[in-house]
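Let us practice reading a record.
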Amino acid sequence: MDSLKLDFIRPGKPTGNGHIDNGRLRDERLNVTQFLFIDDARDKMETWCIDYDAHRPHSSLGNLTPSEFAGMRQGNRTSEVASL
């Protein structure tokens, strides 16, 4: 059986886990979901992350999804390199 270990970010360092919005994750998934076992938690968290990154537009990204924004930035970098 897998064991679960809590790992907290350093106090005063909210960007320590910046790949997801911790507040939204807590409000939308952690506070409202009962996880039956560790694999259940992993599956539900992965589903939430995919939805959050690939399907939800973010106003801070010009109403693009994080995936669209990252793809657009990658495309800009490729164009910059090609023009050199």
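A brief commentary: Residues 53 and 66 are 5 Å apart (CA to CA).
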